[in-house]
Amino acid sequence: MKMNHNKFKSALLASTVLLVPGQAFAQDTAAQDRNDVEEITVQGRYIPDEKRATSEIANILDSESFSQAGDSDVAVALQRVPGLSVVGGKYVFVRGLGDRYSSTLLNGSSIPSPEPLRRVVPLDIFPTAMIENVLVQKTYSPEYPASFGGGVIDLRTKTIPDEFVLELGVGTKVNTASTFKKGLSYDGSGSEILGFGGSMRNIPKEILADVTLESLTPAELEAAGEALPNIWSIDEEKNLPGGSFNFLWGNRYDVGSESAWGFFAAVTYDVEQTNQFGFQKGFNTSNAGLVERYSFSPEVCDSYDGAGDDCGTRQTEMEINLNGILSLGYEINANNSLNLTSMVLRQSKKTSLIQKGFTASEKDELRTLSYIDWTESQVLTNQLSGEHTFALFGDNGMFQDMDFDWRVNYSRADRDAPLRREITYVFDDNDDVFRTLARSDANTTSYSALDDESYEAGFNFVQPMSIGDFAVDIKGGFTYEDKERSYGVVRYFFDFPAGANFDLRELVPEIIFGPANIAPGGIELAEKFDPSDYFTASFENKQGYLGADVQVTDKLRAAFGMRYENSTQIVSTVDRTTDTPVVVTQNAEYWLPSATLTYEFVDNMQLRLAYSQTITRPDMRELSSAPFINDERRRTVRGNLNLQITEINNYDARFEWYFAAGESVTLGLFYKEFSNPIEETFTILGEGPLQGYINADSAELKGVELEVHKILPLQDWLGWDWLGSREVYVRANGSYIDSETIIDPSSSFASTATNLVRSMQGQSDWLGNLQFGWEDVERGESLALVLNYTGKRLSGVGINGVQDEYEVPPMMLNFVYRKELEIGSNIVELKMEAENILGDKAEWTQEGQIVEQYDLGRTFAVGVTYKF
Which domain of life is it from (predicted)? Predict the structure, then answer.
C-alpha cells in the first residue's frame, strides 16, 4: 500500500483537472438541475435563494448527499469536503489545522464537548438521519464566533417535514478483522448493550463516605476495599456482527390558510465490536542510534521461554450509540415561525486492552498490562428559536423587509468513566510464572467525571436596502454565552503488606483482591491522589457584530464587517506540590475586521478575495494542571497555566466557474499567519511520555485547493443506452497544504525538543477525494465509489534527539449502492456498503520505522428501511 500512497499524492491535483472534458468548457447548458454533494453557496445564477446566500465561500452537504454516499454520521460525510480531514474517525481538521482551529455549531449555537481533551464535539456522534444539512465555511465572516482558524461547521437539524413521514430501518455489518474473530471483553451489566453501564460501576458508598480514605477506621477501610467490584480479568470472546436501528416520524398539520405546525422525531441506535490488534513501540536515542524505550510487539516473546507467543497490543472496543431528537415547529404565517429542538446524543464504549512486552524501567522483564474501561458520553441540547420577516421602516422604497432570527439555547455535555482498571504482571524467568508487582503503580482503580453546561442567547438581522443604484444588506447581531465546567478523578490501589506472599501474587486478580485477602494488616485499599486531580472553570463571552454586503456594480460585490468579543475565562485548581489553590483568569477584548470582494468578470465566472482577523483561545482544561489520560494513545496530559490566546491573519483567494447546473470548477489559494500558536509538547514521565502545551513563537500555513464537479453523459458519448435515466457523475478535489511553526529557542521546551522548526501538528500536506457514481431519480437508485486520501500528519513531537512521530492515515476506498422498491403504496429501501476495500491499516511512523500499527479490516454492511 505504500506505493499507492506515494503515487496518489503526486497525481492528486492533476487528476482533478483531467476530469473536465471538452464538453464542460463548451458550457453545456442542457444539463438538468441537480443537488451536489458539496454545493458551493455563492450569489449567482444557480443559487436557489439569493436573498439568504452568504457572500463567503461555503460547502453544503444535504440529507440527499448523505444517502447517496452512504454516510452514517457527519464525520464520515465531511471527509469529502475539499481541505477537510478526519482524525480518529470523529475529529474534523479544516485545511490541515487541528480541532482547536475549527468551530462547531448546532443550529447556529455553540455546543459543549464531552471529550476532556478536545475543544470541539466529536462529529461521529451526530447521525446523518437527524441532520438536514451541514454548512462548512472556510473564509471568515463576522456573524460567526471569533474562534476561527480553519473554518466553521454548522449542523442544521431537521424541522417540520413537508408531509407525513414514517420510516423504520434495520441493518447489520461485519468486519474481516473483528466479526466472528476472537476479541476481548470482561464481566459487565446486561444494560451495556443499550449503552448504560449500570449501578455495578458506581463508586461504592463506603468510599463516598470519605473519598480520601483518611478518616476511615481500619474496619471501614476494609469494607471500602471489599465494596469495589471484584472485576479485573479479560476473557477472549467471539465478536458478533454489528447492528443498527433507526426510526423517523414526522408530520405537518395545516391550520387555516397561512399557519401550520408539525413535528419531527427520530431515534437511532447502533452497536459494533472492533478489534485493534497490532503492536506499539517507543524510542530513545544513543550513540549507536535509536534504542527501544518500550516495545509491545510479537518478536519480544521470542526472547522468553515459556512466556507464550501473544506479545503485542490487543484491544477490543464495543461502541454503542443511542440518539434521539424531537423538533416542534409552528409556522405562524409566511413571515413568522417558531421552532423548539431537543436532542440527546449518547455514545458509550467498553474497552478491553492487553499489552505484552517490555518497558524502559526494566528492559529485561517481560510484562503484561491489562486495562478495562467503560465511558459514557452524552450531549443534551435544547433550543428555542424563531425566524421573522417584517417591514421595520414601513412601506418605504429605500428599505425592504428585514429578516430577523433569534435563539435561546441550553446545552450540557457529560462524560463519565467509572471503574477504569489497570493491573500489571511481570514474568519471572526463574519460576516461569507471571506475578503481579507489589507496588502502587501495579494496580489502579479510578473514577472520573466531566460536566459541562452552556447557556446562550442571541439574535441576527439582515436589513436589505437600496442606496441609489447600490443594493445593500446591513447585517448585525449579538450573542451572550456562559459556560461552566467541572472535572474530577479519584485513584486508588491495593497496597500489599511487606513480604507479601509470592504464590498469592501469581494468581488471578479476582483471588488476589478477594474479600479473604483484604483486611487490616493484609491487602489494604489506598489512595494516590494528585491535588490537582479536580478543577472547575467558567467562560463568559459577550459578542456583537455589524457588517454590510454591497452590490457595488453588476460585476462587483463587497462584504465587510467588524466583530467585537469581550470574554473572561477562569480556571481553578490546586498546585500539586504545595496544595495551594491556583486560579487562572484570562480576560480578552478584540475588535476583528473581515472583508470579501467578489468580482464576476464573466458570466458564471468569479474571483473572490478575502481577509480577516480571528483568534483561538486555550481550552479550559489546557489552562489547568489537572492530569488527563489520552485514551487514543494512552498518554498522560497536563495543561499550562501560562498559555496565551492565538491571533490569526487569514488571506483567501478563489476562482469559481459554474459552467452548467451542477457542474463547476473552483481553484483556491490561502495563507494564514499565527502569533502564539498553541502546540503540544512532550517530556518523559516515568515509563511514558507526558503531553503538555506551549505557545510557539509563530507559525504560517499556505495551500491550494482544486475542486471539480462534472456530469458525464455517457449515454451520448459512448451510446450506452443501458444506463437509461441514470445520471453519471464524477466529483473530485485535491488540496496541497504546507505549514511551519517556530519554537522560541529560549523557551523551556527548546532544551528537549528535537526540532524547533517543523510542520503544525495534525496538518497533512496532501488531501484528496474522488467520487464516481450515478443517480437515478426515476428508479430510486444510486451508486457511488468513494476514494479518500489523507497524507501523513505530525502526531507526536520528537524529544531528546528522537524525530517527530507521524500518523499515516489509511487510504479509504468505499462503495455504496442504494435501491428503492415499491411494495404496495409503500417503499422499501435497500442499501449495501463496503468500507476500506483496499484493506489499508492504521499506522504511525518515526524515523522511517513503524512504531504503531493495527489492522482495520474490511467492513461490509447491509440495511433495509421501510418507508410508510
Answer: Bacteria
The pLDDT assigned to 91 comes to 72
The residue type at 26: A
pTM of the model: 0.86
The per-residue DSSP string of 42-94 comes to: -SSTT-S-GGG--SS-EEEEEHHHHHHHT--BHHHHHTTSTTEEEETTTEEEE
b/e code 132-162 from CB counts within 10 Å (16+ = b)? ebbbbbbbbbbbbbbbbbbbbbbbbbbbbbe
What's residue 509's pLDDT?
96
Cell 479490516, residue?
A: 857
Please name the amino acid found at residue 790: T
What confidence tens digit (pLDDT) does each residue in 179-205 have?
Answer: 999 999 999 999 999 999 999 999 999
Pairing of strands 165-175, 646-660: unpaired
DSSP sequence for 397-454? SSB-PEEEEEEEEEEEEEEEEEEEEEEEEEEETTTTEEEE-SSTTSEEEEEEEEEEEE
Q: What are the domain boundaries of the chain?
A: 1-157+542-809
The phi and psi torsions of 193 (rounded to 5 degrees) equal -65, -20
Residue 723 confidence (pLDDT): 85
279 by Cβ neighbours in 10 Å (0-12 / 13-18 / 19+) ranks as buried
User: Which three cell numbers mark 51?
Assistant: 436573498
Average pLDDT of the chain to the nearest whole number: 85
Per-position DSSP letters for 754-816, written without gaps between them: S-SEEPPTT-BSEEEEEEEEEEETTTTEEEEEEEEEE--EEEE--BTTPPPEEEEPPPEEEEE
Question: Which of 321, 316, 212, 221 is closest to 267 using CA atoms?
Answer: 321
450-492 per-position pLDDT tens digit: 899 999 999 999 999 988 888 999 999 999 999 999 988 899 9
CA angle, residues 733, 153, 476, in degrees to nearest 5: 120
**Exposed, middle or buried, 374 (CB in 10 Å: 0-12/13-18/19+)?**
buried
